[in-house]
Amino acid sequence: MAERKPTIRDVARRAGVAPSTVSRSLTGTSYVAEDTHARIRRAAAELAYPLPRRTAAPHSVAALARFPSAWFFAEAIGGIERVLRAGGYRLVLHNVGDPAARAAMPDDGWGLAGLIVVASSLTGSERAALAELRVPVTVVGGSWPGMPRVGIDDRAGAVTAVRHLVALGHREIALLSFDPDDGVGRETTDARRQGYVDALTAAGLEVRPEWMIALGDDAVAGARAAELLLGGSRLPTALFAMSDEMALGALRTLRRAGVDVPGRMSVIGFDDQAVAEYADLTTIAQPAREQGERAAAMLLGALDDLPSDTPDVELPTRLVVRGTTGPPPR
Questions:
Q1: CA distances from 308 to 40, 139, 299 (A)
Q2: What is the reported pLDDT for 30?
Q3: Distance between CA atoms of 307 and 136, rounded to whole angstroms?
Q4: How many domains does one find in the chain?
């Protein structure tokens, strides 16, 4: 039977300090007292604990996310970076949307003080490997059982979007969905899809699979999805897109095809990006930057060993009605 390798908690226990203090000391953190630093190094040597081979940066926290090309990731990571910088930490981005990078998850050699998982679904084995780092973890969107989370109710947000269309009189409503096979955002996709189904079912409306189109999460995917709807045997009177990018792509395709929005078809998105206002897009607003800020603040509290009575934070979404939704054609 293989001998168990010492962990950062073992070192902390022997040195009589918190695991976060061990992490700061071994990654070269300047504010750890010299006698404490010496005690930690001595405990690590006695336990044969491997010292970090490299460090990402002094006081580093890793954010696991798809690189911030999409609006939500850019906003959330911007909030995370601002709070961490104010707290004396630096942010390291790790792209879990890239298969090669995902196969090389952070390990002890990174010398990290903590982790923030940004709207990214992880497998059980990936979670187990990251848990071996023995550092504080917070989650933005998605979930990690047992870890504190900041996010929104994606399912409820989708319900609100579809209810708005139903209240206007729409009975034939399509869904432009993220790819359910994309491992990065699977939980978000599933929740918003379920909200769409819930709202239709509650209104006594048919859920038509041919009107549930999943091609991606950007404007190109939205444009292609609208093309498929236009090529179908019957055009719905409204569509709900899981992101503003997808909604804007669909809008361009519909308008170029001569489909009046909202006279012939209503369109609603999700996010409320800055561009949504200028496109006069009806959407579901969510506080993406605040989610990142709150998650980073929670992580700093854990690093300072501060107790938390509210491990999970759910921020509200809201319906923003603009010019792309109206009653269906008579």
A1: 27, 15, 10
A2: 41
A3: 13
A4: 3
